[in-house]
Design goal:
7-stranded mixed β-sheet, 11 strands, alpha/beta, 13 helices
Length: about 450
């Protein structure tokens, strides 16, 4: 019994020390970005008004919508987008696959009613990757430009489940004169049937698109794109395609949107994360449902973790030499696996300390007490945890109200569990990719909200 108790005490002591050091480093990193945001808020508010914007570019905007197995949502999405964008000069290029007849039929029904919809069927059977589908759309755009002697002003991106804002193109036309890349916020829809799993996306995006990307823009660091609600100057995409031998997207990438944001910055493209409010004071953003069950959430987080923190590191490196802002942000993007490892150690420490207390109680003696230095470290970490939870609750509440802010506290545990599961799966899939396994479009089930006003 004594040997077991000694071993448990050692595991408890060492795991607590390791977790505390890891949390301290991550907490300081987060506090530094918080400081950038709040100091920036002293100089300027992050949100502007659409009424204050002036159109600076004319011409057609090509909107790319890749679709694999999206028959359930693509029809309503296209109809809503066409109605909300109205008479603006745009074309919708929808990518599908020959072996996905249901999606082809759903797109075809809308295309027959509205000539602004282009159905593009890829050369390879699906699913390939989203990036490969986007390359097919790029080829289709170029063919049509050559055949009809016109040239798009910009290319915008959306997913098959997106609910667009009616002023979205207006923002692009105003900002793409000064900037070459515009990213709008993403606002997950509240799913009453999944307040915890789907709800944790609310908290993450509220903080990411309310604080982190705003601070990143103020720093002048490259802004990763979300793959939806973003637009890029057509000439800049062509430069990326030329640098890559003809196609702008890496067909082997699982997070082509993230990489596209960094690549446009590496080519000197001027970027802006645009938080703009409409005439009613509502944020001009892309709305969509996110996974409402643990299985799909883990699949999605796995894809993000591989593409950004693991595989993307191999392809993108550390960016511009000597640019500490770029290096810092890429380090933050890639810390997810390490953060999850520290989180695992922390949960192990909780179990080990509980077992230690129980064993010593059975033996009738006192469990070892943390040293003064360790207690100080624990108190510092506890204070930083309270601050982080308060920040998340504040940004969630600002976007969704008090009740969702309150729910963000228990949802932090749900997010931790999903991250732990995703990290384990991401490592195994990344190892498989290193052995030559080709990536596929590991998409999740999508839904489009009912009763959306056109």
């Amino acid at each position: 019994m004594g040997g077991i108790t000694f071993a448990v005490d050692a595991v408890a002591r060492e795991s607590v020390i390791l977790a505390c050091i890891g949390f301290l480093i991550g907490g300081i990193d987060d506090l530094a970005l918080d400081a950038v945001y709040w100091l920036g808020r002293l100089r300027a508010r992050p949100d502007s008004r659409v009424a204050d914007l002036t159109e600076s570019i004319a011409g057609r905007i090509a909107i790319f919508v890749p679709a694999w197995d999206e028959a359930a949502v693509i029809g309503p999405m296209l109809a809503t987008t066409l109605a909300r964008f109205g008479d603006d000069d745009f074309l919708l290029y929808v990518g599908a696959y020959a072996n996905d007849r249901a999606t082809i039929d759903a797109v075809g029904i809308v295309a027959e009613r509205d000539a602004r919809v282009r159905l593009v069927i890829g050369a390879r059977p699906g699913p390939t990757t989203k990036a490969d589908c986007l390359n097919s759309l790029w080829d289709a755009l170029q063919r049509e430009e050559r055949a009809e002697d016109w040239r798009a002003a910009a290319v915008a991106f959306h997913d098959a489940e997106d609910v667009v804002h009616r002023d979205e193109l207006r923002v692009y036309r105003a900002l793409l004169g000064e900037y070459q890349v515009v990213q709008l916020p993403v606002m997950p829809l509240v799913d009453r049937g999944s307040p915890l799993v789907a709800g944790h996306y609310i908290d993450e995006f509220a903080e990411a698109h309310g604080l982190r990307l705003v601070a990143r823009g103020w720093l002048g660091a490259p802004i990763p794109l979300a793959g939806v609600g973003c637009a890029i100057d057509r000439n800049l995409i062509e430069r990326i395609a030329m640098a890559r031998g003809g196609t702008p997207f890496d067909a082997d990438s699982l997070t082509e949107d993230y990489e596209l944001g960094l690549r446009t910055a590496m080519l000197g493209g001027r970027q802006v994360f645009a938080r703009v409010r409409d005439d009613d004071g509502k944020l001009i953003a892309v709305a969509e449902y996110f996974p409402d069950n643990v299985r799909d959430a883990v699949r999605q987080k796995t894809r993000w973790m591989i593409g950004i923190a693991l595989d993307g590191w191999d392809r993108l490196g550390w960016g511009r030499a000597g640019d500490w802002r770029d290096h810092w942000m890429r380090l933050r993007d890639r810390r997810a696996p390490l953060s999850v490892f520290v989180l695992f150690i922390a949960y192990l420490a909780l179990l080990a300390w509980g077992a230690s207390l129980a064993l010593h109680a059975l033996a009738g003696d006192t469990a070892p007490q943390p040293s003064n230095a360790l207690m100080t470290l624990l108190n510092i970490n506890a204070a930083m945890l309270v601050w982080r939870l308060a920040m998340r609750a504040w940004f969630t509440g600002r976007a969704y109200g008090f009740w969702q802010a309150l729910l963000s506290l228990p949802r932090a545990l749900v997010g931790n569990f999903i991250a732990l599961m995703a990290a384990r799966k991401a490592v195994w899939r990344y190892v498989g990719a290193l052995r030559g396994r080709r990536p596929q479009w590991d998409k999740t089930h999508h839904r489009f909200p009912e009763g959306v006003e056109p």
